[in-house]
Design a protein that fits this description.
Blueprint lengths: L2 H8 L17 E4 L2 E4 L22 H23 L5 E12 L7 H16 L6 E7 L8 E9 L3
Parallel strand pairs: 3-4
Antiparallel strand pairs: 1-2, 2-5, 3-5
Helix pairs in contact: 2-3
Length: 155
């Protein structure tokens, strides 16, 4: 097990299997020293634990936890192409999409769930640039979707 996976275990987390694509794309691709993940939904055992809009059916705290799950799924996608999460030199960028009620403006707080997990697991390597975007709807009526870009060390 890698040091990153050991850190996940110390947080009571395990790396899930890669979430299969719900359309025509790959969960992650590598280009040079970078890995780009597809948008990761907060799938747990093949299902969304919650659906709906943040600020209506889903609370901001619930959505923040779902963003954390998205980041965990993104790490699984990175491992699927990098082979070892210890190869992560740094997280470069995180983009979070939040299916938002019309009056909800707390997208940054929701996406903090993903950012904080990456920081807890990767330390300084988890510090990144980020966008948090409110959208009308996400695939499968997911409340949150997160994608990440990471830089790898040479194999």
């Amino acid at each position: 097990m890698s040091a990153v996976e050991d850190k996940l275990a110390s947080l009571g987390l395990t790396l899930p299997p890669v979430v299969p694509p719900v359309a025509a794309y790959q969960p992650a691709v590598q280009s040079g020293v970078y890995v780009f993940t597809a948008g990761q939904l907060p799938m747990v055992d093949g299902k969304l634990p919650l659906t709906g809009k943040v600020g209506d059916e889903v609370t901001p705290d619930q959505a923040k936890e779902l963003a954390r799950t998205c980041a965990l799924n993104a790490l699984a996608a990175v491992k699927s192409v990098a082979g070892d999460l210890d190869r992560i030199a740094r997280v470069v960028k995180v983009v979070g999409f939040v299916a938002s009620a019309t009056d909800f403006t707390g997208q940054p707080g929701v996406v903090n769930g993903a950012s904080e997990l990456l920081g807890e697991v990767l330390g300084d390597k988890g510090v990144h640039a980020r966008s948090a975007v409110g959208v009308a709807v996400l695939p499968l009526d997911a409340p949150v979707e997160v994608e990440i870009q990471v830089e790898l060390t040479e194999a």
